[in-house]
């Protein structure tokens, strides 16, 4: 009788069990390797920056050491961050350190909740030209940009913004909380630089709500400093935030300041005010139409005047003012009669396109009664003439003067037309930026 065949059924389940065990072990090993890879700060930062870059349409990388924390409030810190628009060699943003802390509710919400614990930026450097290009290439937003809530606020230290021919250095910004439904109180400081002129500022800012068309208040110290003169001031301003096709800026700006003109031994206190819509677009800052007023003591060399026109700053400083000097200042050299005896205000028009320190040629037209002057001058020379104890009878300028009558050394001249050439040759002022 043939021997019975050995049973095989129990062996098949055993082989299947071993196969499943190997699969489980392989998956567990893969999970452990993946966990080890993900647990490295550099890999975590790479994942986060890649996701952020895709969302913003930017290429974002960080070559420095990274840190992260998952317990409590999740935190990520990266160093040597660089952000570029796709296809661009020049970075839009650099930063030595970026710190971001966000609660788990924000992470789980995948963007539907914008609560952030805190943001910190050390030595960020923003290229405004690259920023403009990136913004122009972005698709239009379907609605208002949502504003995140920063529970413990933000801090920016040693920042820098670079424009065309100018920059703002040593930027500091700090606020304790940002909430779309609460006032924002912040402190901002820095130093703007352009063509030999520095504008240091240290201001307190209060924003009624962090949104367009909301009220903004500014107050604090600001100065304009050139090689041979400076204007330190205490200023206060009020306006409404603006964001539209004509650029970012302020609507209904009203600015007042108590200041001094300081040059050598000269120290002239006065007050001034500015008003108008302020805009920044395509690398140019404008205030147009604008109103301006200067007020000083009766014996001051600073004239009391009111003016209107346009201010622009981009590749060059541009001024176009039309206004009225209410009276010839007592501290200015006396005009010959009958000009000196007239109490009629002086109407004027001033045009300038040149360096930010106002050292280039100014075109000036003035009229009092039937006397008119059209000419050119340089502000540093004119201020020196005004300040001189033994000034020449006529100011240092070039142009033509016409008047029905003038008296010089007791002689009366009628139907006078005078051409003055007292302006040294110099390079022409640059044309206004288009």
Helix/strand-derived category reads alpha+beta
Q: What composes the largest sheet? A: 22 strands, mixed
Spatial separation of the terminal alpha carbons: 111 Å
Beta-sheet strand percentage?
Answer: over 45%
Report on this structure.
- The chain is of the alpha+beta class and 434 residues long.
- It has a domain of 153 residues.
- It has five helices and 24 strands.
- The chain has a 22-stranded mixed beta sheet that branches.
- The longest helix is centred in the N-terminal third of the chain and has 28 residues.
- The radius of gyration is 33 Å and the shape is elongated.
- The protein starts with 10 loop residues before the first helix and ends in a 14-residue tail after the last strand.
- The C terminus is likely disordered.
Quick recap of the structure?
The protein is of the alpha+beta class.
What are the main properties of this structure?
disordered C terminus, two-stranded parallel sheet, 22-stranded mixed sheet, alpha+beta, 434 residues
Describe how the helices and strands are arranged:
Elements: H1 11-38, H2 41-56, E1 59-62, E2 67-69, E3 75-84, E4 93-101, H3 104-109, E5 115-116, E6 118-122, E7 125-127, H4 128-137, E8 149-150, E9 154-162, E10 167-175, E11 184-194, E12 197-207, E13 215-225, E14 230-244, E15 247-263, E16 266-281, E17 284-295, E18 305-313, E19 317-325, E20 346-354, E21 361-368, E22 371-378, H5 379-387, E23 397-408, E24 411-420
Parallel strand pairs: 5-8, 6-9, 7-9
Antiparallel strand pairs: 1-3, 2-3, 3-4, 4-6, 4-7, 9-10, 10-11, 11-12, 12-13, 13-14, 14-15, 15-16, 16-17, 17-18, 18-19, 19-20, 20-21, 21-22, 22-23, 23-24
């Amino acid at each position: 009788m043939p021997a019975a065949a050995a049973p095989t059924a129990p062996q098949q389940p055993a082989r299947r069990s071993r196969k499943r065990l190997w699969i489980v072990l392989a998956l567990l090993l893969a999970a452990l390797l993946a966990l080890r890879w993900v647990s490295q700060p550099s890999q975590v930062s790479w994942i986060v920056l890649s996701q952020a870059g895709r969302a913003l349409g930017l290429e974002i990388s960080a070559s420095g050491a990274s840190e992260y924390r998952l317990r409590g409030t999740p935190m990520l810190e990266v160093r040597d961050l660089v952000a570029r628009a796709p296809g661009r060699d020049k970075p839009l943003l650099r930063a030595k350190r970026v710190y971001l802390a966000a609660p788990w509710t924000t992470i789980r919400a995948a963007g539907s909740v914008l609560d952030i614990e805190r943001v910190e930026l050390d030595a960020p450097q923003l290229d405004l030209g690259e920023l403009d290009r990136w913004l122009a290439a972005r698709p239009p937003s379907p609605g208002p940009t949502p504003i995140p809530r920063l529970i413990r606020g933000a801090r920016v230290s040693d920042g820098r913004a670079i424009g065309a021919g100018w920059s703002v250095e040593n930027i500091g910004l700090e606020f304790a909380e940002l909430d779309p439904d609460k006032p924002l109180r912040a402190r901002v400081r820095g130093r703007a630089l352009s063509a030999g002129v520095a504008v240091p500022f240290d201001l307190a800012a209060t924003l009624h709500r962090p949104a367009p068309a909301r009220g903004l208040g500014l107050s604090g110290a600001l100065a304009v400093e050139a090689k041979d003169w400076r204007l330190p001031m205490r200023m206060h301003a009020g306006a409404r935030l603006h964001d539209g096709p004509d650029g970012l800026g302020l609507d209904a700006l009203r600015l007042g300041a108590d200041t001094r003109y300081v040059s050598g031994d000269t120290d002239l206190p006065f007050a001034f005010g500015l008003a108008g819509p302020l805009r920044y677009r395509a690398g140019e800052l404008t205030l147009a139409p604008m109103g301006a007023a200067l007020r000083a003591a009766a014996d001051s060399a600073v004239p009391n005047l009111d003016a209107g026109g346009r201010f622009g700053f981009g590749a060059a400083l541009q001024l176009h003012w039309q206004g009225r000097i209410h009276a010839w200042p007592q501290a200015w050299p006396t005009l010959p009669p009958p000009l000196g005896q007239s109490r009629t205000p002086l109407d004027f028009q001033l045009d300038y396109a040149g360096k930010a320190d106002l050292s280039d040629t100014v075109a000036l037209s003035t009229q009092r009664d039937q006397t008119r002057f059209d000419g050119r001058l340089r502000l540093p020379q004119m201020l020196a003439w005004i300040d001189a104890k033994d000034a020449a009878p006529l100011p240092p300028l070039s142009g033509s003067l016409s008047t029905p009558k003038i008296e010089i050394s007791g002689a009366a001249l009628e139907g006078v037309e005078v051409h003055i050439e007292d302006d040294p040759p110099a390079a022409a002022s640059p044309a206004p930026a288009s």
